[in-house]
Design a protein that fits this description.
6-stranded mixed beta sheet, Rossmann fold, 174 residues, 6 helices, alpha/beta
Length: 174
Amino acid sequence: MVFFSSRLRSVLTQFPTEGLPPRVLNVGCGDYPAAAALRQAREGWTLYGLDRDEAALRRARQSDPALRLVCADARDAPRIFRARFGLVLVRHPDIFRDKAMWAVALPRLLALLAAGGVLLITCYTAEESALLAALELPPALALDEDALAPPNLAGHDRYLHAYPVGAHSDFGAE
C-alpha cells in the first residue's frame, strides 16, 4: 500500500534540519508507506526502517532498494543502531494493542536522536493520543496547527506529537 501524506510533510517543515545528522528512522515502518513523504520533506537524508514483520520489510526493499531496513523489536533499537538520527518517526503505533511494549520502546527511542532531533509520533485516535501522556517522554512541542495540512479521509497522521531532544528543544515554543 502506498499513500502520500501531505499532513506528514506539513508537520516535518516545522522542525529544523540544520546541524542534524541527515538520517530518519521510521519505527514500525511496515512496507514503508511514508517513504515518499519523507524523501520530499528530508531531501538527501538516508531513510532507515525498523519493523518486526520481515514480509513487510521485503516489500519495502522491493519498492525502494535504497531503504536501510532492520527486522527487530522497537525496544531493541538503541542496541541495534550506533548512529544518531535527526528524526525518529513512529507512525500509527496502535499503542492500545501493546501498551507495555510501547511504554518501554518510546522513551528508549529518544536515545537515538542527535541533539536537536525530534521524535514524532502520529496517531489515528484521541484515545491513543491520550495514552502518550502516561509515558516518560519530554514535554511535547507546540505545533503550528494553522500550518498543518488536514488529515486525509482515512485519518492518517490526525494526531501529531513531537518530542525534541537537547539543543533546539525550545523551538516552536512561545
